[in-house]
Amino acid sequence: MFILRTERAEIAFVLARIGRVPPGSSLLPCTRGDRVAFHALIVDDSSAVRAFVRASLEDAGFARVQEAETGFEALRLLASNAFDVVIVDVNMPDINGLELLAFMKKSPRQQGARKILISTQVDGSDSKRGTKLGADAFLQKPFEVDELRALIRRLLGSAEEVSR
Amino acid sequence: MSLTQQKATLVPDPESETGAVAVLAVLAGDEAYGFPLSVVREILVPPPLTEVPRAPEHFLGVISVRSQIITLIDLPKMLNLEVEQTEPYGRVLLVDNGEELIGVAVDSVIQVYRMEPEDIEYASAMGAELSEYVVGVGRVPSRSSSDAQDMLILIDPVSLLGG
Amino acid sequence: MSDPRDNVQQEFLAEAQELVEALSRDLLLLDEAHHRNERIDPALINELFRSVHTLKGIAGMFGYRHVGAVAHALEDLLDDLRLARTSVGQQLLDVLFDSVERFQRLLALEDPQSPEEEPGVQAYIAAVRSIGQEPEEEEGDPLDKYAIEPAVLSVLTEYEEHRLRACIREGLQLYRLRAAFDLAAIDDSIDTLRDVALDDAEIITYLPSLEGGNEDTIELVVLLASRVPEADLKAHFEGRYGAIEAIEERTHLPTLPPRLTSIPSAAVSMRAQPDEDPSQASLRSVANSVRVDIRKLDHLMNAVGELALVRSAIGRIVDRFKGESAHHQSVMDLDRIGRGFERQLSELRTGILDVRMVPLGQVFNKLARIVRQAARERDKQVRLVVTGADTEVDKLIVEELTDPLMHLVRNAIDHGIEAADERTRVAKPAEGTLAFNAYHKGSNVVIEVEDDGGGMNAHMLRETAVARGLLSADASHELTRQEMLNLVFLPGLSTTSEITDMSGRGVGMDVVKTNILRMGGMISIASEQGIGTKITVTLPITLAIIRALIVNIASRTFALPITAVREAIPYVPEEVHTIQGREVITLRGETLAICDLARLFGFRSTARKGGRFVVVGSMGNRELGFVVDELIGQEDVIIKSLGKSLSSARGFSGATDLGDQKVALVLDAPALFTEYFDGPDALQALETRL
Description:
heterotrimer, A: 164 residues, Rossmann fold, 38% helix, 20% strand, B: six-stranded mixed sheet, 44% strand
């Protein structure tokens, strides 16, 4: 297979030589398109799921999507950004989705964010707890592109055009 | 690859309602050929050529394009046509065969034609005489006379050393 | 609008592959622990569960129905294991190991929903389910035993609750640890905490608390379960982290006796050196690493090549204006800048090469599974010792190495290590040892595969070679012992009936050797009868850049990897003799066959009479002199492949850009040797076998 795993530090080193991203900063994705309709955060330990969500939302060019692989990374991003939508997987090692929701509930900066919880059972205890912690909607795995887009459209109101 | 699959490479222009295909016409050794424009990545002035000893005759050798090593082929020789190549090649097309870039040496580039499906006759319909690299034959307005038509031999890039 | 899933497919496959590899690694640890009758670390079972659980999730999202179904069945089984409803046994292990191959096959399918696979998949799932147990009746919820705050309980996932209950059932005590972390460095801090906790406690979950935190730090409450006395835990944690306190039990409930009486041991390792713990290393690196498509790196390298041309152009301008006094200062500035540019370029190139490097542990892990499989098949006891798994090598080399090493391993187990009773009879431990070792040596990497089996019989090798007509009886008597051992590399020595065909192709030590030589490496064998065998493979660290001798043949430029070159001497036509149709010269008293490359390639040689050279190439124990017209010099070159279309061009392993769009073909020394000595047909046969 042609895919290999490499240390972030090594990539950062190469990029620093080219001069675009200074060493020490995180590798942030670029904005696609000039009209950014909403700012989203996807928190999931699976890179395939993150890539899928990113592709689903960025395709229309109306979303700026940031990714977090762990709850910790999410905490970092939540501390310095205001998101319109936060999509969180419930089952993550260390800080799980519920804990993240609880944190967001108490955090003043994230009060306006719409929170979507991804879980494997929509009517299980995870979801019940999620609702109590302020989740606005649930997505059950596996989910389709259209489901996600429709959900976001509903949550953010018809004012924003989410996708065609 | 079956010929029905080959047809897939002539990707219709998404803007067009009739299913027209953009085709780049080139001249090589007395014949005119057509490539789907979608697979032609670049047209270059021929860079220095490095021969590869003991390679089959239709391989002219390799060229270097932005530090990438690309194979250069002679189209008429690939189609087993007897051709006297007297002039040096005028242009090199960089063609994407689905896996890698292939260089095709041609004499000159004619122009881009928009071909409707009815202008194309597929090789399958004409019988099995033609080489595996040929999708079919296309008719385009003649450059010399206004009533007549010229014929382009339409090449399937995917079958060119690929797939 | 296109389906985003198409673009993301690669991402899914890469992640799925990694999950399966993690599964395989963890299964090996489980297997070893089980066979040593050691306590199974619950964290290991949890890791297995997690891998399978995640795989099930993403398989479902990307339409890999069969993969999802198999993963689901395994998830249930592992859940049973986690909750001690069933225990680890041979049958369970076998079924789990089977899943690895099954997943790999299912992931490689063109059509992930292929109905053809259905019966096989269903049969396997049935086998898995037959091992799981019926859930027992719960004796009341263990969670009730503890006075855990509802706020904490409300943020536990079902999954974490299960773990909590399992810990309580095993009789562990629950603790709460408060610690503050710097947000910027939190990943490392958590890793450190995990390491510190490793031996003593199982971390259930981390709860971020909004008290005592600010923009840069965050306080976490960590929920732990542990068997270790509270005082020890306090001593362990309180120094570097915050306060730790036990969560009180509600009174009046009897504590359940611990399930196991043995003392918990440290995490099981593959008997690696104390500083190496493969499972922990892999956990740590995932957070800090990204997946890179190696072809993108090639693209980057090309870009670097282009920049090098820019650098040369600057150099030429500097030279052009150097003499003129009018802009002297500017020219000197430009020169200085050019050299600074060159330095940065060199660092950039090194950085990109570093990115391509992966640890050999990847290959060793795959081999470990083969070892287990082969040992089971042959009914032999084998223990595996791995050192130097951290040694890094170019990713492409790792890809090429897997097959030859697999063959060496199978050889060692099939023919090297004896059966248990035979070993005890000669006062050896019943369990054989197979060792992998890897280390860097200069610009090479050395990989050793060693076994303590019966060793090779040099004399028998000699007799077999003579019997097969590979060697004349007379010549055979002149051989030294080492030369007799090296006979094993001769093509045709082992018959197909003896060769264990693993990868679907004919394999023999000769193919292994050719593969190694092709990579620019060397292989040697050492063996003592009754004691064991050690095979040493030496390879360049990276195939991407190699040092080559640049030569001219008939006004065309070629490159010959320096690893194949012993020396270069002037070509004196008068000294050439012809023996049995071959041209030879005498070098230091020995006969050296020579090959006129201009003639071989069909060029008309355009060199002046006296000025040609013979480049003495050396491959293993064969030598061949290549006649060339001019020696240009030595250079570090980046070898690019010639593309699929030209792979049939014999004698070339690629091409390199020498700058200014000048291309030099890179000579494939092993292929040229084979063509010369064994005839062009032998080369053909060899290539089809590979």
